[in-house]
Give the backbone structure.
Amino acid sequence: MENACVADMTLSANYPLDGLDELIEDTRLSAVENLDIVSIALPRILGAEEARQTRDALEDNLKSSFGLQLTDVGMRSSNPDKDSLLGLQPGLWFLVTGKQSSEPARALKTVVRDTAYVTDQSDSWAILDIAGPHAQAALERICSVDIDQSAVDATRVVRTSMEHLSVILERPETERFRLYSPVSSARSFQHMVSVSLQNVV
């Protein structure tokens, strides 16, 4: 019997916002793709001294590999390669990096070793950048917290809600915000931000 032929197939990534890139007046709303997002969680340790040592070791590992400071909750650190570490809750961070790996959690585990648990979150979040002079005004209409630059700058990260959708917000530049929302509601998320921007220009 002749061997059955197997067709050559090429797999390609399918992103939740499908390459969105729209300019509304002078403010741009665009999907962010090709990022790795990996959660970093400290293990539950009962002893205070052992917990401190584990956190210190984790910070040393991240500094030596990424040049990133282990942040407190609500704080953000970044490096010249535009990697960022987002402090989301006690003992939990997101590492966001454009250096894509086929197995980002496994790659990061070689860095943090036994100081933390890591989980690949890359496919769980839809990410939008909104950049331009109307970005802040558009987000203020739908955001439940103060996002003025006096409250949120490049060193901060905020977990909030926008019209009942869960959102993580950072502000890498004065007129540019980056928003993360669960991929399950990606289209509602995009529509919400786009409509709000249209209403302020």
